[in-house]
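USER: Write out one fold?

ASSISTANT:
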Amino acid sequence: MNIASKIRNLSRMPAFHVLLALSAAHCLNDLLQSVITAVYPMLKADLGLSFGQIGLITLVYQLAASIFQPVVGYAFDRRPFVYSLPAGMASTALGIVMFAYCETMPGILLSVFMVGIGSATLHPEASRITSLAGHSRRGFAQSVFQVGGNFGGSIGPLLVALIVAPHGRHYVAWFLVAAVLCFAAMRPICRWYGSYLRELRGGASARTGHKPLPLSRGLTIFAIVVIAVLIFSKYIYMASLSSYYTFYLIDKFGVSVSQSQIFLFVFVVSTAVGTLVGGPVGDRYGRKIVIWVSILGTAPFSLLMPHVSLPVTVVLSFCAGFMLSSAFPAILLYAQELLPTKLGMISGLFFGFSFGVGGIASAVLGGFADTYGIEAVYNACAYMPLLGIVAGLLPSLKKS
């Protein structure tokens, strides 16, 4: 079957338009989230903030965006709400306006808290709806959803450089255009989700909320611990690439800042491609094998990277980003299949945990680089994908 035929088949999925809308909403949400950190230099200059205060702003944002995700997911698992996504975007939009105009530290902290709450609402809820709309193609659905977020997060800083940097922090308010577009993307999602909930409550399928877990309680807890170890290994290495890759290239190979940004873009593209591929492959061959191959299979590339020339480093960074990124849709879906009646809670738990690990790892690796040098970071982090071997301990899940 050629590519055109495959695309036509995918477009005939009953809720394909909903998946596209979810991907667009994820893109616009993550674009708005990325504005916060991209504006830090201007914010520091405007308000005369110290690096400690910038760290406090990041802490408040990370707490709201990470810790509240499983809480929000659990709440809407118990009481589904059709308009949960617009409610989250309303919080983000209000936070963006406050962030553009507030001139006091408490106001800035409140604004980033509200933006974080918006993120904590969208990720578990949109991931839940993505799984429901994906039906038997849930891996493909999650990949489409994740790619939207990857794209939005990558273009946010670029738009800040074009729109905000030449004119000042108040121009952050122009990003309300993205919020309006996101509300528009959410309309077909809310219509579909409302129809789904009415059918669920009115039909015999309402009994599915009481279906048993696929594994015993003990095995379920064990599997979640193993997944947490895998996320830990994945996001520590991803943090070394996303936060410090440009510094590594400048320090080791003497490239210019603009060249380093081009090489970073190559890595960002690899994560988008890997995310898009990982979900469908998991649909076909199983989540466990994708998780195992994706994370452990990154090790040869990560271990070689500190010891090769610049061109080979760029190629290896693409391979490492591709392999690691293909794991997340499979990890998330495996976790959802462990707790099929808690889709929102488990999505929020793993999105929040991944955000938290990434944020903490970036801070720790920064201190490590200050003390031992940036090359030492890559020599140490290169071994993290070897933890992927624990994926072999994951129990196999029978398909219902």
In short: Confidence is low (pLDDT under 50) at residues 205-209. The longest helix spans residues 217-253. The two ends are 28 Å apart (CA to CA). The chain has 16 helices and no strands.
